[in-house]
Amino acid sequence: MTQVSAARAGRITPEMESVARQENVDVDLIQSGVSAGNIVIPRNIRRKPFQCCGIGQGLRIKVNTLIGTSSDRDDIRMEARKLALARQAGADAVMDLSTGGDIDAVRRQTLSQADMPVGSVPIYQCAVEAIEKRGSVVAMKEDDMFAAVEKQAQEGVDFMAIHSALNFQVIQRLKNTGRVTDVVSRGGAFLTGWMLHNGKENPLYEQFDRLLEILKRYDVTLSLGDAIRPGATADSLDGAQLQGMIIAGELTARAHAAGVQVMVEGPGHVPMHHVRATMLLQKRLCHGAPYFVLGTLATDVAPGYDHITSAIGGAIAGAAGADFLCNVTPAEHLGLPTEEDVRDGIIAARIAAHAADLARGNRQALARDLEMARARVALNLDRQVGLSLDPEKVRALAGGDGNGHSCAVCGSQCAARVAAEYFGIA
């Protein structure tokens, strides 16, 4: 029985109970959200037990991180270290985007070692294998695409980014509109090239029911990939993006009807004044499905600091309705991220998510900030470390274990403490 079928039958699954405990909400809220499609719990029926998380309406905003090999760097041991670092840094989920070396081995290692939901993009492996076997991405066979999905589902992948919301209508709209950056999604580019070369519709769109059958069999959550996301602020909310949203909305309704968990991926590069409109449009067009944003990046001119530009946009996006933030590292647009880049990206995204949770009135987030304020007034460094998003950083900047700690600015005559004593709140 899948999470959706259980929820619609009025049953409470162990995964729903676990999410309710984590979120400190009534389990009936989780059950009704899964039933309606505005909450997803990525959990393949073939995965070993792990720490589930809920994504969607009324829940804490979650953070996803990316790992994976490439043709330039296929060190499987490094990917294991990145995975361990992701958990330590507080990521809620991880996606393996491997395109180099032994792709199967990296994915199986990730599934074996991860204590969190694991996602993938099956078209990446399909494209790489088409190049190896037939010399070109455009030589992919339709059945290859579905075989890649089924293979990774059988192995236990919990959620998959699949670019089904790309069809010839969207491509025609792109041609008519014109763009600075055209197609920046890797999966979107693979499929666009395949469609134009072969003169055929996207099989992942045209045979969407076939795809849903596979995903439902393993209770894999569909993450509708944003094949047409804007790669520059100049392209935000153009006709191509809106056409893609409309198609995503239609497919979301079909996934809901089929009993498949679904979330929708979004931009991308979005100037701050476009963020709220983008979130409202997606939620309206996609029937309240959880929104998984890749950023959003608030400006194009800060290479080397895109973990900051994405945290700015991500905080606004989360406050306006986004449910799942994919972290962006400082290496975005420049090269492959190091382990430290991954950590910096996760922390930046978690700051954005927490700030957005506060704006949304999340009780746990509000309580955490209040406790931090009280700990500062009491000069309780240990408590501040425990409440911080990055305890390691706090300890390092505070100068060790905090014994004998006093205010770094005022010393023993801390103005905040004197005032607190006067008001009786110290």
Question: Could you write a compact summary of the structure shown?
Answer:
With 426 residues, this protein is α/β, with parallel strands linked by helices.
Number of strands: 10
Q: Kindly, what is the distance between the CA atoms of the first and last residues, rounded to a whole number of angstroms?
A: 53 Å
CATH homologous superfamily annotation of the largest domain: Radical SAM ThiC family, central domain
How many strands, what sense, and barrel or not for the largest sheet? 8 strands, parallel, barrel
Helix and strand content put the structural class at alpha/beta
How would you characterize this protein structure?
The chain contains 19 helices and ten strands. It is α/β, with parallel strands linked by helices. An eight-stranded parallel beta barrel has the order 3-4-5-6-7-8-9-10, surrounded by seven helices. A two-stranded antiparallel ribbon has the order 1-2. Helix 4 runs parallel beside helix 5, helix 7 runs parallel beside helix 11 and helix 17 packs antiparallel against helix 18. The relative contact order is 0.10. The mean pLDDT is 94.
